[in-house]
Write a structure and sequence with these properties.
The structure holds two protein chains of two kinds. Chain A has strands spanning 4-6, 11-14, 19-25, 32-38, 45-50, 54-58, 61-66, 71-76, 85-92, 102-103, 107-112. By secondary structure, chain A is mainly β. Chain B is built from no helices and eleven strands. Chain B starts with a strand and ends with a strand. Classes of the chains: A mainly beta, B mainly beta.
């Protein structure tokens, strides 16, 4: 099993819809989870971090963490064409150190006007 | 502040050539990283450093070398370039570790390298 897995996509949603992106991880002891957005040809930028079970909301973005099931998700409400990008899930795995991130392959999201 | 600066932005190498990818940050961050990203893939860690004079291998270190003589600079050296090293390379830095919250990893703009 790969350490960090994301639904491969691509994911296409209409403008105004909710986009749901999922990520599972193998290390049950992991504590820190991140969502990065990467526009085509650009570098990743952090959009959400989450450390505790439950939901964390920031504007149109909600991160959800379930450590018992070892998954973390990102919901984007009222999706806009400007949200079209690849979304990378990153996990600080407990088996390593607290200063290394393991990234999933990313999910390409397209929001259609 | 410039953040994390990488040079060059693009480079084409011939097989067997060598080059150094430059990375500098002006945020006084202790931790610096080199990642590569192949098309349709996530980021894979090549090397990282937790402070000046300290470096360690990541997931895919073969064919690369690094040094960290100052807090600001973390160059990546490619020796004997091979087509398998064609990729986009990102340098990143953060102030401290990822546990406990409040930490952000900042990325440079990337270097697109082709080995032909």
């Amino acid at each position: 099993q790969k350490e960090v897995e994301q639904n491969s996509g691509p994911l296409s949603v209409p403008e105004g819809a909710i986009a749901s992106l999922n990520c599972t991880y193998s290390d049950r002891g992991s504590q820190s989870f991140f969502w990065y957005r990467q526009y085509s040809g650009k570098s990743p930028e952090l959009i959400m971090s989450i450390y505790s079970n439950g939901d964390k909301e920031d504007g149109r973005f909600t991160a959800q963490l379930n450590k018992a099931s070892q998954y973390v998700s990102l919901l984007i409400r009222d999706s806009q064409p400007s949200d079209s990008a690849t979304y990378l899930c990153a996990v600080c795995l407990s088996g390593g150190s607290n200063y290394k991130l393991t990234f999933g392959k990313g999910t390409l999201l397209t929001v259609n006007p | 502040n410039a953040g994390v600066t990488q040079t060059p932005k693009f480079r084409i190498l011939k097989i067997g050539q060598s080059m150094t990818l430059q990375c500098t940050q002006d945020m006084n961050h202790n931790y610096m990283y080199w990642y590569r990203q192949d098309p349709g893939m996530g980021l894979k860690l090549i090397y990282y450093s937790v402070g000046a004079g300290i470096t360690d291998k990541g997931e895919v270190p073969n064919g690369y070398n690094v040094s960290r003589s100052t807090t600001e600079d973390f160059p990546l050296r490619l020796e004997l370039a091979a087509p398998s090293q064609t990729s986009v390379y990102f340098c990143a830095s953060n102030l401290r570790g990822f546990s406990g919250g409040g930490n952000i990893q900042y990325f440079g703009a990337g270097t697109r390298l082709s080995v032909l």
